[in-house]
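Fresh eyes needed here. Kindly weigh in on this sequence plus structure tokens:
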Amino acid sequence: MSMNEITLSVIIVNWNTSQLLKQCLTSLYVNMPIAPVEIIVVDNGSADESVEMIKNNFPDVILVRNKDNLGFAKANNQGMKLSKGKY
């Protein structure tokens, strides 16, 4: 495996939990493993500041914005389709 390959994909489903999401992403970045990691957030149509918070504070996060709340399972599947990680 080359160093450019993504080892771990972290998929987070969010719906109106901007502050919890910020804490979660901050913790991930503080404790990031050495191996290449991608973070995918699937936002299920949040009406709070979640999307803006991600854009302003975590520009490396891959963001999927759903217009409506599609549910936890469907949102996870969306993230999985985008993921490139081995794990």
User: Anything to note?
Assistant: The chain has a mean pLDDT of 95.
